[in-house]
Amino acid sequence: MSEHAAAITLEGVGKSFGDNRVLTGIDLTIRHGEVTCLLGPSGSGKSTLLRCLAFLEEHTEGIIRIAGEPMGFAPAADGGRKRLPDAAIGRVRRNLGMVFQQFNLWPHMTALGNVAEALRLVRRMDRATAEARALAQLEHVGLAHRAGHYPSELSGGQQQRVAIARALAMEPKIVLFDEPTSSLDPELTGEVLSVMRGLAQEGMTMVVVTHEIGFAAQVGEHIVFLDQGRILLEGRAAEVFQAPRHPRLAQFLQTYVDRGASLVLQE
Amino acid sequence: MNFDPALILASLPDVATGMAITILMWLGGSFMGLALGLAVSIARRWGGRWARLVLDAYVGLMRGTPFLVQLFLLYYGGPYAGLDLEPVQAGLLGLTLYSAAYFAEIFRGGFEAIPRGHVEAAVCVGLTQAQIIRRILLPEMTLLVLPSLINMFTLLVKETAVLSIITVPELTMVITAIGSANFAFAEATFLLAVSYWAIVEITGLIGRFIEGRLGRYRLV
Ligand SMILES: Nc1ncnc2c1ncn2[C@@H]1O[C@H](COP(=O)(O)OP(=O)(O)OP(=O)(O)O)[C@@H](O)[C@H]1O
Ligand SMILES: [Mg+2]
Fold this sequence. Notes:
By secondary structure, chain A is an alpha/beta fold. Chain A contains nine helices and twelve strands. Chain A has a six-stranded mixed β-sheet, sandwiched between helices. The longest helix of chain A is centred in the last third of the chain and has 16 residues, at 186-201. Chain B has a single domain, classed as Orthogonal Bundle (MetI-like fold). Helix content of chain B is 80%, strand content 0%. Chain B contains nine helices and no strands.
């Protein structure tokens, strides 16, 4: 069962929006317990790739497997693909947690309510059990004292930590992050990154789209660099960031240096 | 012709009855319209192509023709289609059908204004479509459309005046009757305006109170 050793595999995955081809020939293996960082210029297809993993977008070519099971489409006997029923997609999706750039908390529920909601509706826990679990999860991201607040009463960093707690409450095997700090002020970015760093240390499998090059260099183990919908290079963080760098990556990293980002690469 | 406030005082009991009927017609028609409009907006969005086609036509028709004409058709044309209604029944049904179309449009706008990510987040934690509609979309939509709903309610108060045309004994009918019986049109018209204005102001107060209470759920 060698393929089950991988958390996620992609074979020849492509995605077009109508005539607009966004991803081409993506082959990728994401191993359990690793932090994979997806880097690349704006419009290179990072979000689309991540959203395909959760089947929020349907990939138009290839096969994606999550924990060994095909996501959305399975190989068919005739060599093509067949669409899986929604129930099967939902089942595979339970392996995943997703954290969005815009947090996407439900504004009419408290922090506690946001985290407890799926525990009650999906896990069928009674209210007390769900809320106890949710509170423990909020504690884990350092927000137990904010449990009764509504999203509009929380800072951006706090909202994103609640969103992380909401994803973790469902005990996913893999957590996907799409630019989790991009809509935060610099002061608030740190508190979210430190929660993510802690999660990485606990051995969580994480796929992180990020423009935080420092985070990628320090926490990322597997680096994937996308350019124009293709994987331009991938490898261990130490190799990828090592000079001499791939010229396209060097150019990409330079834009961060130009904006004053400090590249603390090998530590 | 001089303005005679005594006349206003003398007719207050009749006016009160008319006002009660106006309020009953208004709230009855509006709340039934609200419920029907919600059902229409849900069926339009999730009910498939045929439901959408039929309901789009219904909404278009109700919003594209004067309420007065709709009422005439219902009350005077209804009997030809086997629908023989009392004025109050026809009035309530007319108000319901008319307001439901507007409410359905308000709800549609509300559903469309909900960020797609709120639904995606729910999908990712495993909520079913029915759970998402009930627990995420309906409450968020309600918060978004609250000001428009209150506005629609105040518009509908004034639409009830049209019901006098099909002889529903509501405020406009009562007061114009008093006015013509006493040749006191100025007093009657003044009283009429003040009465509607009072209802609209009270509705606005209630609306602002509800909005204030729900302020902390604001979209972020
Ligand atoms: N729903 C969609 N419909 C049509 N085109 C889309 C859609 N979503 C993304 N695209 C296109 O796909 C391309 C890749 O977009 P994507 O959001 O994946 O890039 P990205 O690498 O995440 O960029 P950024 O760093 O700016 O977030 C872009 O050209 C975008 O216009
Ligand atoms: Mg993106």
